[in-house]
Amino acid sequence: MISIVNPYLNFDGNAKEAFEHYRSVFGGDFAVAMRFRDFPGNMGVGEADLDRMAHIALPIGKGQMLMASDVSGGYGANFKIGTNTYIHVEADSAADAQRVFDGLSAGGKTEMPLSKTEWAELYGICIDKFGVQWMVSYTGEVKFEG
């Protein structure tokens, strides 16, 4: 099944500023705040985007996070406020991740196929047939040391 569901936001260069605001509202400390330059290989982004946020997370409830990143490269051309929200689901197993991803992407569009990444055994992005944007992951045994 699914163990965690979190809202995931995208910004066009001001994710850190937005999350400083959210932290002033909700309190607490960032669970993670990494720029693209902090990742091995910089996640393949260009020099102009290295200081944008690759991932930032703020705990906002019991086991829940508000998460975000800044868009980079060609993704910025399609950025539009109002369509910059994803729902992130963390599956309990690789089989559950595959089942959920297949179900959500059926009749929709796959933006990033479910595959291994630096931070998860499986991670993928899709838009379902109703236009809702999803991120599906199964962290598994991956211990990301960014």
Textual characterization of the structure:
By secondary structure, the chain is an alpha+beta fold. The protein is 16% helix and 38% strand. It has two helices and eight strands. It has helices at 15-26, 94-105; strands spanning 2-11, 32-35, 53-61, 64-70, 85-91, 109-115, 122-127, 133-138. The chain has an eight-stranded mixed β-sheet with strand order 2-3-4-1-5-8-7-6, with helices on one face. It is globular, with a radius of gyration of 15 Å. The mean pLDDT is 88.
Question: What distinguishing features does this structure have?
Answer:
146 residues, alpha+beta, 8-stranded mixed sheet, 16% helix, globular
Layout of secondary structure:
Layout: E1 2-11, H1 15-26, E2 32-35, E3 53-61, E4 64-70, E5 85-91, H2 94-105, E6 109-115, E7 122-127, E8 133-138
What topology, given as strand order, has the largest sheet?
A: 2-3-4-1-5-8-7-6
Shape: globular
- Residue share in helix: 10-25%
Q: What does the average pLDDT come to? A: 88
Uncertain runs are none
* Strand content range: 35-45%
The separation of the N and C termini measures 28 Å
Q: Which structural class fits the helix and strand makeup?
A: alpha+beta
Number of strands: 8
Order of helices and strands: EHEEEEHEEE
Number of helices: 2
Compute the gyration radius: what is it? 15 Å
Largest sheet: 8 strands, mixed
What is the gist of this entry?
This protein has 146 residues and is an alpha+beta fold. The chain has two helices and eight strands, in the order βαββββαβββ. The protein has helices spanning 15-26, 94-105, and strands spanning 2-11, 32-35, 53-61, 64-70, 85-91, 109-115, 122-127, 133-138.
